[in-house]
Amino acid sequence: MDNKTVLIVDDEPKMQRVLEIMLKQMGHTPLLAGNGIAALQQMESHHVDLIVSDLQMPQMNGMQLLATLREQENDLPFIMITAYGTVESAVEAMKHGACDYVIRPFDVEQVELSITRALALSRVQQENRFLRAEVSKGWGEFVGQSAAMRQVYELIGQVARGKTNVLLVGETGTGKELAARAIHQASPRKDALFVPINCAAIPADILESELFGHTKGAFTGAHKDRIGKFEMASGGTLFLDEITEMQPALQAKLLRVLQEGVVERLGSNYPISVDVRVIAATNRAPRAAIADGKLREDLYYRIQVFTVELPPLRKRLEDIPILANHFLHKHGAKLGISVPGTHPAAITCLQAYHWPGNVRELENVMERAVVLSDGGLINVRHLPLEIAECAPYAVAESSAGLDDAAEAMKELSDLALDPAVEALERQYIGHALEQTGGNKTKAARLLDISERSLWYKLKKYALA
User: What's the sign of the alpha-carbon dihedral 179, 181, 184, 185?
Assistant: First the structure.
């Protein structure tokens, strides 16, 4: 078992010493306190994994300490040890949440077993707290049946069964974290933790502590020991998102951890063994990142044992109707709005758009559309302008035919633009016509819109 910090609370120095020696022989770090008040003070400045406390002590006894912790909603594992064992005191200790009750004089092996069980419970409680926080984020599942996505599913299935590190490559918003979670859930490690960390979202001077943990006093503000993400993910999976944003010096330390399987908390020389599968991700082309000095080449070879590329949304257009419907129902349920569906003209616009933000952008667009729809069918007028204005030509050029084109024109005419936006658009169209001598084909090309769209706008603004 990893090194843990155990707080011994006892007013007898001899008993403190016996328990201190026992814990050190077990590979743990003991802290000492003479009563409940001193114990609470120790916990203010130290990370504690377990409390082993005497029952009878001056100022604040063991039962009062336990009750105080539970009132503070602190579920730290607690072992009560006493020479005054009664059924009533044992029942009371268990009622307040003690995980064990030991009578003195005790057998050393019995106490060691009790401590081992309690620390295992501490690990489970820590994981449960982490998992509750993760579940509250409401992560969805992969959606899509395009050929590109079927290939991704197949690769995930192949790599999940092994222990190799994985590199996920894809643009922002393509679902790299979903892929990492899918690999974890399909692996033998699925019952352990999946721990994500975004290397781009955490300042460089904090990221090292987040990854490896730190001891009290390791740096200014380190008021107590803290476990790092590597230790937390031991037995499970660590997901390093945007790894190319990690500083090169820290990449070197990461490489050492991957090679040796041990971490050292900042401020400590004590090596801690970890068993972690690393899944890394980047939105950069790896070779280009190496050339730009954003990714160490030796680290790249360590993490890219197996590479999965996530396709951008513009290369899986056939998935857009499925995704749009998925997000429509997801956000409709969340907002309490029942939406019957999406009009074909709106779907055509969605498929004509280039989606620089990929699936994440599509989800935001559909959530906005649900709010604007007020429970009605999602139409072109519920889409952002840059997506909606493709309707006249996009629909006409699709297999849907002229009827849908006319419907899309009607939907677009219903768009309520901000007057300032309309004025600016009218001004740009006027300038384009002036520069092209009134040639509408050249003006449309200058404005980067279709000629059909320009004719519609000319009629709308009475410029024709």
Answer: negative
